[in-house]
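Priority: medium. Attachment 1 of 2:
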């Protein structure tokens, strides 16, 4: 919660500093996906629909501060892999992702500045600029696995021995974490009041448990005695498991590589004038 308060406080300060600037707000629609132990490098693989809201403060023609709330799902399964080791491991998961972010954007071309600074496209109707961004995000996740047609939350099951007496060194992972968003896109100024953007952004996380897979196989008997038979089954779903102890202490995931998740889509934002600007315009008209 302290992390959430820090991000919200930072966003508030930024809002106050930008009070005399134009702001814009609008929806985001697109897809989300993840990279980790069950999807090592295939971008956009297992993509799921995503959506949210963005609020951007325009500082000048090159810089803006964007606050966003995005929601999506991530999913992957070993059975769809081309790697025989993954196919035999036979794990799968799904998880919701809620992401609250504050980012700074840099426009490569002057954008949303005075009309003389704007760059027109060939059609002489739309203004545009490529842009990049980075910042900080707070996100929540909740990996689940399916067994006999029912989806179970995996974190409470301690599938790698977390939270059991047998594995005191393995602690339960937090379902709320920080991440670093990095990405870019291109903006189009449809009119004086409406902007359109296409954007892709990946989040570098500091956890390896978005997919509930990180370290080694735990003893299924120990897990079953403390967490129940479902937990024991979800911990090891290998196709060629010969005995109940066949994979104990063998590698289940790679804890050295942290997970990533990404959002890609489009935004349609509508400009809002600040009170400062309205008063200034009123004074001129008067």
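Attachment 2 of 2:
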């Amino acid at each position: 919660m302290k992390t959430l308060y820090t991000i919200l406080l930072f966003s508030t300060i930024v809002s106050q500093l930008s009070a005399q600037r134009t702001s814009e707000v609008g929806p985001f629609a697109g897809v989300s996906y993840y990279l980790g132990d069950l999807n090592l490098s295939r971008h956009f693989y297992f993509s799921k629909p995503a959506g949210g809201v963005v609020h951007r403060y325009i500082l000048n023609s090159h810089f803006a501060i964007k606050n966003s709330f995005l929601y999506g799902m991530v999913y992957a399964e070993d059975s769809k892999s081309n790697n025989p080791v993954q196919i035999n491991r036979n794990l799968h998961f799904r998880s919701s992702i809620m992401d609250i972010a504050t980012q700074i954007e840099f426009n490569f071309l002057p954008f949303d500045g005075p009309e003389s600074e704007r760059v027109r496209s060939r059609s002489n109707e739309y203004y545009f600029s490529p842009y990049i961004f980075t910042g900080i995000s707070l996100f929540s996740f909740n990996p689940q696995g399916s067994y006999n047609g029912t989806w179970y939350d995996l974190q409470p099951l301690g599938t790698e021995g977390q939270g059991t007496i047998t594995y005191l060194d393995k602690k339960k992972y937090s379902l709320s974490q920080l991440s670093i968003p990095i990405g870019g896109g291109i903006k189009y100024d449809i009119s004086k009041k409406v902007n359109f953007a296409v954007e892709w952004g990946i989040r570098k996380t500091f956890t390896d448990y978005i997919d509930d897979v990180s370290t080694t196989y735990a003893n299924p008997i120990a897990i079953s005695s403390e967490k129940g038979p479902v937990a024991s089954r979800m911990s090891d779903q290998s196709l060629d498991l010969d005995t109940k102890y066949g994979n104990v202490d063998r590698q289940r995931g790679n804890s050295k590589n942290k997970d990533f998740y990404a959002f890609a889509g489009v935004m349609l934002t509508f400009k809002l004038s600040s009170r400062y600007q309205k008063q200034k315009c009123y004074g001129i008209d008067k």
